[in-house]
Amino acid sequence: MLRLVTAGALAAFFLTLLSAPAGMAAGAGLQLSMLSTLQPDRVVVLKAERRLVLMRGDQVLKVYRVALGRYAKGAKRRQGDAKTPEGTYTLDYRLDNSAFYKAIHISYPNPRDRARARSMGVDPGGKIMIHGIANGWTPVELGHPSLDWTQGCIAVTNREMDEIWRLVKTGTPIEIHP
After folding, report:
1. Considering the domain boundaries, does residue 147 fall inside one?
2. Nearby residues of 41 by Cβ (< 8 Å), 6 or more positions away
3. Is 60 part of a structural domain of the chain?
4. How large a percentage of the chain has pLDDT more than 70?
5. What is the 3-state composition of the chain as percent helix, strand, coil, each rounded to the nearest 5?
6. What is the CATH classification number for the domain harbouring 123?
7. Average model confidence (pLDDT) for the chain?
8. Domain span at residue 110?
9. Which has fewest Cβ within 10 Å: 43, 148, 162, 167?
10. Confidence (pTM)
């Protein structure tokens, strides 16, 4: 059963990350060899902290620094707003041939997102992914991860995308928090 993290649990989670040893800083965590035996059962994105966290139960497996949509504050409401969605979704399929170095699709929009967009008379958009760097670009050229450069996606380096690709299975839940 998917659990949306409560505000109290999220605060405790932040404290855990902040008090964790240096090895648990962004981009660190369990060694990849250990990670391969502990498949993540969910992905948590903390937009304000620009972090993507691989979780197994309540255990933090790995933390990555990310770049988000150019206008990252607030939830995605419509196509073209360059915002990263907020809510609970599923990582539902993979693309190894796209405009970015590998991509895992996020099931945005969910029924709630579609209803909100319909009530506003707008298209909710879609094609939201976790992906690597844009083909033909370098992280430095994009300002990654210091600058939010996507159209609403969650971007990591290509090396990090390779790790996520190996570890996270299709069908894994993803929670995206403000």
Report:
1. yes
2. 55, 56, 57, 172, 173
3. yes
4. 79
5. 25, 25, 45
6. 2.40.440.10
7. 86
8. 7-18+41-177
9. 162
10. 0.82
